[in-house]
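SUBJECT: A protein chain and its fold
Encoding: whole-number codes for local backbone shapes
RECORD BEGINS BELOW THIS LINE
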Amino acid sequence: MPSGFRDQIAGLDAVALARRLIGAGLTVRGAGGTIIETEAYVRDDPASHSFRGRTARNAAMFGPSGHAYVYRSYGIHLCLNVVALPGEAVLIRAILPEIGVDAMRQRRGNTQLCNGPGRLTEALAIQPTDDGAPFDGVDLAITLPEVAPPILVGQRIGISKAQDLPWRFGLVGARGLSRPFTRPARLRVRDRMP
């Protein structure tokens, strides 16, 4: 019997988890697709919500790995993250919509369904109540790929601090990234996932 998502990611920091999530399947209450873009945020990172310590807003970031951290960006859009080590999380920036596409179109319209964190959460109907929920297959689920796909590596975007860190990852050849990668692609060796 395959181990659960939490067991598969146990001990991974946010950077390793952000790479590992590329090519994974994400479903939220019957809608979802393949994760094609992520960004990592670690505890001592000045761009991370956990940098100044635990608060009511970021409490889920300090919870168990493999759970959701959902927050509102600029008071407008919700953003979906996967908790790694305590105080670390991975922002899901884009997915390739594959499951429940009609429902996603009803929520977003026919264009730009999931190419950006706010668009993605609107298309998937992420709610503030999903904050802290496990990716256990009930409402939220992540299925990791067996083989590591080739990935792009670049600088994070949409932040004002620690912009130079190469902690944004994307699936090589994917259409629907939130923004193009400006650095040349670095391909990850195809290997079996641990």
Summary: The chain is about 15% helix and 25% strand. The first helix runs from residue 5 to 9. The CA atoms of residues 112 and 119 lie 7 Å apart. The longest strand covers residues 31-41.
